[in-house]
Amino acid sequence: MSVITTINGLLPVVFWTDALIFLLLACIVALGFYVRRKEHLLIGWRRVGESRIGMAALTVLLTFVAVGLLDSLHYRQQLEGRRDQQSQYAVAVLSLLDTIAMPLKTRTEKTYSAPFALDAYAKETVELPNGAQARALPRLKYGGAHLKSPDDLTRDVATTALLALLPAALLWLGISVLVARRCGASVRGGWKNGWQRVWRGETRFAWNAVLITLGVLLVLMIPLAALSNSYHVFGTDKVGQDVFYLTLKSIRTGLVIGTVTTLVMLPFALMLGIAAGYLGGWVDDVIQYVYTTLNSIPGVLLIAAAVLTMQVVIDMHPSWFATGAERADARLLALCLILGVTNWTGLCRLLRAETLKLRELEYVQAAQAFGVSRLRIMSRHILPNVMHIVLISVVMDFSGLVLAEAVLSYVGIGVDPSTISFGTMINNARMELAREPVVWWSLVAAFIFMFTLVLAANVFADGVRDGFDPRMRLRPRRRLQERTA
Amino acid sequence: MIAYILRRLLHAIPILIGVNLITFALFFIVNSPDDMARMQLGIKRVTPDAIQKWKAERGYDQPLFYNAEAGGVDKITHTIFFEKSLKMFVFDFGRADDGRDIAVEIKSRMGPSLAIALPVFILGLFVSISFALLLVFFRATYLDFAGVVFCVAMMSISSLFYIIGGQFLIAKLWHMVPISGYMSGLEAPRFLILPVIVGVIAGIGGSTRWYRTIFLEEINRDYVRTARAKGLSEVVVLFRHVLKNAMLPILTGVVVVIPLLFMGSLVTESFFGIPGLGSYTIDAIGSQDFAVVRVMVFIGSLLYIVGLLLTDISYTVVDPRVSLQ
Question: Considering Cα of A280, then A286, then A289, then A293, what sign does the dihedral take?
Fold first, then answer.
């Protein structure tokens, strides 16, 4: 799927998953505008916005999403050639993130190197100045190459990190002032008043949590980015690729698995669940039969069966895909589809049960008495009232899907081996702990990023569930009660 | 009761047929046996003769549903659908694509799988329920809050990291047990203890949180208030009243997985080199042995249906008000 218009010698490439991600983004934006005008829908979101820990998690999640979106704008570079020739494009598909992180992508060492290392991991035969040969650890080609002597390492790292803290602090202050202005806009005293309200926790939206999380993220990420310019901050892997770059690229794969899967399964679950619950009779029987059957196959095995067959289909038709990246993307999409097929049954059952309940309520019976058609009742009266279930299950599923990707890739039925993902990273690195000295950095980097992403998703999901499903809320909201009392 | 069980078993038949059709469609209609043969033999330099030979050796050279060339009953029975799919209903699994008998493999591999899955299941259940009861006992205190945070953090770690971390710490650094491998008999515990510990720890976060929710839902009921009003201590209330009444939702989630324990765990077994059914499946996936995967799908869904039936029966055991008709 490529669009044939060029911008400055770049050929934009839109992968299927890219298209779906941006479709999803458009849906979320549209939904946002829709919700803004509906007071009864806003209540739930306000409650989510009040949860400090939930908003802190959302800030972390949005940072991941930003990286993922940067990595979803793909293009192919024009190759140098004569004017009269039809323009040729490089086979390699790059993303905006690749362009930003180009130094990380291109500076590959020979093999492993530890974080912030100056010397290679393995000894090599090097030639000494006097012509003799010796076994020694050679200096890395790129990692800390600008240092004159290895003793400068600590000083250089410290100064680079400290210097990078300055823009981080400025950026954070700027954002904080903007937030304060916004919070102080409606009251007397302008942004100073707003500043106080934010930090005393008097705003309804948990701005203080967002700002603190943002501060921590900026303090961590900007020095890290600055250091990654001249060092391998998380070391390099077996073929010498920078591990920090690999983790950044993994984020998109995780996000795609977590969101696109939901997007493809949602229409099925919604239509079938509501139809089964509202129409009843043979429709209900058929739909129940279908989901019981799908449900009774253990998930991993169904995925294994489907992925194996899909692999054969893709391998048998190499002509379908223009580039290797496109083939890998097709595999990613197919994995999402398969995960969607195996995952929709749970939501479908929930929706069916809720529809059964709603069907008997007075407002639906009133609509029936007015002669509203069944299709219209289902779409106008039932659908909006089951949306909170959909929302809760969507955010709850996300973290599980990100975790599943890693396991499936390990089993060999996950993403294409050429796709960088947490699963492939772990899979490639799992034997490294047996080496001497231990190569721990790839695993630790994958662990930190994956753990942060999944933890943030879990915490945010809890916040959403608390906001939209009061029955599930186990702790009474003490702060809210104090305020209203 | 017996009539109920029989009826449920009859209900299982259409579901198993459905499962069978799905796997059949995936393995024989989406891909033709020719594609499979080409995959197995390598895409390049495959002669039609080699493909024919490969198919004939494994019985894939018959028509899918209807054999027009054969006579009589053979029109139906000499087809791939009958040979490969319908025969599974009488537990005739045939041979794997590498020629070995699947049924024999399954029998010999069931033991090691159970040796890991069963202790993990029982220990995990015991640990998570005790932990959840502890959290509920200290509910609405900082201990409870810390416990929930701990659970959410544990849930957010991929199971792969538990295995890798466990192998690294316990086996490689501390040299307490072998990293992987398996021996039957008295030597077995030495190899099993690490996978079991890792399996229990990996499951703690999610299940503790789930049990805690169940207990908390019970704890605000009227009968609990009555029990407290009678002057029972909190421990007695929790163990004698809450735990008993929470049995129903717990059983719903727990009993259904018991039969599936036979299948073992794919990832654990392959990491620890245990020759169980899980690693058998993984090897089959790796070598694209469709026959084995097909059989495993069938057995898996069969066991799941048995699990559902067991769940219903277990209700009558713990709750005398439930009667199956």
Answer: negative
Burial of A48 (0-12, 13-18, 19+ CB in 10 A): buried
Search chain A and give the residue with CA nearest B302: A296
Q: How far lies B55's CA from each of A113, A257, A273, A310, B35, in Å?
A: 49, 36, 42, 20, 11
ipTM of predicted complex: 0.85
Whether B279 shows a pLDDT value over 80: the answer reads yes
- Name which of A441, A64, A430, A432 is nearest A234 in CA terms: A441
Taking the C-alpha atoms of residue B104 and residue B154, their distance in angstroms, rounded to an integer, is 39
What is the predicted pLDDT for the residue at A59? Answer: 93
Of A312, A410, A433, the CB nearest to B168: A433
Per DSSP, the three-state class of B66 is: coil
Average pLDDT per 10 consecutive residues for chain A, totaling 485 residues: 54 85 90 84 84 91 92 80 64 81 80 80 75 76 77 84 90 89 72 79 83 91 86 84 89 91 88 91 90 85 82 78 81 88 87 90 90 90 87 87 89 83 86 79 90 93 82 46 38
A9 to chain B, any CB pair closer than 8 A? The answer is no
Region of residue B122 (phi > 0: left; psi between -120 and 50: alpha; otherwise: beta): alpha
Tell if the CB–CB gap between B266 and A300 is shorter than 8 Å: yes
| A220 touches B at CB < 8 Å | no
Half-sphere exposure of A385 (CA within 13 A, CB side): 18
- Separation of alpha carbons A273 and A278, rounded Å: 9
pTM, two decimals, is: 0.88
A10 has which bridge partners? A7, A77
Q: Is A298 part of the contact surface with chain B (CB cutoff 8 Å)? A: yes
* CA B272 – CA B179 distance, rounded (Å): 7
